Amino acid sequence: MNLYGIRAIYKFEMARTWRTIMQSVISPVLSTSLYFVVFGTAIGSHMGAIDGISYGAFIIPGLIMLSLLGESISNAAFGIFFPKFSGTIYEVLSAPISPIEIVAGYVGAAATKSTLLGLLIIATARVFVEYQIQHPIWMLGFLILTAVTFSMFGFIIGIWADDFQKLQIIPLMVVTPLTFLGGAFYSINMLPEIWQKISLFNPVVYLISGFRWAFYGVSDVNILVSLGITLTILVACMLGIWLIFRTGYRIKV
Amino acid sequence: MISIVCGIVNLSSGRVIADGNNIQTDYRAARSKIGLVPQELATDSFESVWATVNFSRGLFGKAPNPSYLEKILRQLSLWEKRDNKVIALSGGMKRRLMIAKALSHEPKILFLDEPTAGVDVELRRDMWDMVRGLRESGVTIILTTHYIEEAEEMADRIGVINHGELVLVEEKTKLMQELGKKQLTLQLQTPLPTLPEKLRLYQLELCQEGSQLVYTFDTQQKNTGISELLKSLNQEGIVFKDLHSSESSLEEIFINLVRKNKESA
């Protein structure tokens, strides 16, 4: 196994994060904090509790998930897209490093960044809203699992994208709307029955529900179903990446 | 072809063995022995010189070795620039940095794909010196070039590829001996209107409005025929005021080979 190779990619990607700390860390923390201020403190103080949880605390898992999904996808997508764009991908392709090791380097770094960001947002939220975490191990597990899964998804997008617009389409046009409609700001049980059923086709519902259960012990769907759906997305992304390296799709001629 | 050997392009048929290692089934061993300097200047603009050579070494599975990397950067006159960002380097420095990156994992085989394309004369000379140094240190260098003089100056063995087909691979000196020809040019005292009958048995050509005689001979033959020719000229009363000999360049050999290949196709 080429551990030095994995470490080289990982270090390279993490170095990029520190170089762009304003954009990759401070900006998402700031924008999520604004959500806490506006929806949690200002509007939330006039809203009733949901499932016995204050509105300000209720939206924390969904808001963390919103940042986590977006950042995981963006970090991993940009990480592999930029070497393709600049031509430096030749070095990775000509190195004695396997596809699994390449993915471990890029996805590992992207997942680390978004996990750290998630933890930072959790800590920042405490400044604005009172909350307790009932199942901290599960919370951390969900955080890491979601970060890894969506970093893999981002890696696929980075390979697929052949211009900067495509790099942004899926996170902005698909993932963000699905997160807003996936119960980030409400419980899907509050919706009319037909919309509750439609919402169950949204995979983000399961991610937010599982994460909220880890925080407060309440969820829209069973925790095991949430875990199962997250693992299914992870396996689907792994299969996608396996196919990419097998065929050389958009990275090899 | 270089891209296939290095793993950048998928192999559609056939097989490639690099220093005894199959590039597909034993790709780790094969690739760890190969360094590549591509033609395009593709660099990580925002990284420092030091970080980017360390990245390359790590990527190829080598443990950190700062003293080795320092040696490489010093050889390539980049040590003073080690903390500079790549984007701040000149074109020539970037080209040298790409060589440093390719050498960072101590390859046994180095592909230099048109390393002097678009490079000024001084830098080209420096690169030639560096390539000679690497060759002497035991690195096998495969240099692709459109500058025939470059191949003539540097190569031990030469391969000619025409339209994707390897026309030949040969030792340079042997190639020039076998396929090259030598010419003796005589500057005549008095121009000749035509070639005298007795001189027609030699491979002679009358040029420059009869003031120059060019004799083409085979260096491989024991008897080049020069002394007989000079005797015959004497007998015919032809006086020459100057003479010089020249041999065909690699460029002429290359052009002849490509032409022959075209005719036989």
Could you describe the 3D structure shown?
The complex is a heterodimer of chains A (253) and B (265). By secondary structure, chain A is mainly alpha-helical. Chain A is 77% helix and 0% strand. Chain A is built from ten helices and no strands. Chain A has helices at 3-19, 21-43, 55-86, 89-93, 99-128, 136-160, 164-180, 193-199, 203-216, 223-247. In chain A, helix 1 (3-19) packs across helix 2, helix 2 runs parallel beside helix 5 (99-128) and helix 3 runs antiparallel to helix 7. The radius of gyration of chain A is 19 Å and the shape is globular. Chain B has 265 residues and is of the alpha+beta class. In chain B, 38% of the residues lie in helices and 21% in strands. In chain B, the strands form four sheets. Chain B has a four-stranded antiparallel β-sheet with strand order 9-10-8-11, with no helix packed on it. Chain B has a three-stranded parallel β-sheet with strand order 3-4-5. The model of chain B has no long low-confidence stretch (mean pLDDT 84).
Short structural description:
With 253 residues, chain A is mostly helical.
Content of β-strand of chain A: under 5%
Q: What general form of chain A does the structure show?
A: globular
- Indicate the overall shape of chain B: elongated
Q: Which residues of chain B form runs of ≥5 with pLDDT under 50?
A: none
Question: Termini distance of chain A?
Answer: 26 Å
Strand content of chain B: 15-25%
Structural class of chain A: mainly alpha
H/E order of the elements of chain B? HEEHEHHHEHEHEEHEEEHEH
**Strand line-up in the sheet with most strands of chain B:** 9-10-8-11
User: Whole-number average pLDDT of chain A?
Assistant: 88
Secondary-structure map:
The complex is a heterodimer of chains A (253) and B (265).
Chain A lengths: L2 H17 L1 H23 L11 H32 L2 H5 L5 H30 L7 H25 L3 H17 L12 H7 L3 H14 L6 H25 L6
Helix pairs in contact in A: 1-2, 1-5, 2-3, 2-5, 3-5, 3-6, 3-7, 3-9, 5-6, 6-9, 6-10, 9-10
Chain B lengths: L1 H5 L10 E2 L2 E2 L4 H6 L1 E4 L11 H11 L6 H10 L15 H13 L5 E5 L7 H16 L3 E5 L3 H7 L2 E6 L2 E7 H8 L2 E7 L15 E4 L4 E6 L8 H10 L4 E8 L2 H15 L1
